[in-house]
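Structural prep section.
Before we set up the soaks we want a predicted structure of the protein with zinc ion in place, mainly to decide which crystallisation condition to try first. Input record follows.
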Amino acid sequence: MKIFDTYFKWTGKLLTRPLTRKIVLHHRAGEGDVLSIHNTHLKNGWSGIGYHFYVRKDGSIYRGRPIEKVGAHTEGNNMDSVGICFEGNFEKDIMDKAQLESGRLLIAHIEECYGRKLEIKRHSDFGATLCPGKNFPFEEIKKASCDDLVSKMFSDGVISFSNIRNWELFLSGKSRPKAEYIRAVIKRYQAKNQSQ
Ligand SMILES: [Zn+2]
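Run finished without errors. Recording the tokens verbatim:
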């Protein structure tokens, strides 16, 4: 999984989020690149794109607002949540596998960053909106967890099998390997992705 960095100019000071309890999922209700969302949100008078991540239909993932900053995506719930937006209008579209897979891995990646499972919610859980659309594969995406990230690493062959016992325990949910170990694996995973 690769996350494309973006280099947006913010028109206001972004505040650091005091806590992170959940991830809120949105759809774009349309199509276009991440810059076009940034520009739309600037026109709303916001500091810039309000989502932390944008997942395009082809499965590519872009950074929006820095993950540690307060977003602008779900009224009354921005102080404790990370916002992910999916390209498309899932009132009528059906999500392709590539986008679904990226969404799941991204959630797993965010949970790994915070070292715990987070609540996964839809925008419509917090207000009168159709977002993210009636066809949005919420249950399938919600199943994502750290386990998905680890499974992906296994399939990519980046995990040291000398430590497989740790991973077995981790996957069975009985315990978690030490954070330093996870970080080392992620680092190796990223190095491998970059060299491809
Ligand atoms: Zn929304």
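Observations: Residues 26, 123, 129, 131 surround zinc ion (CB under 6 Å).
Flagged for discussion at group meeting.
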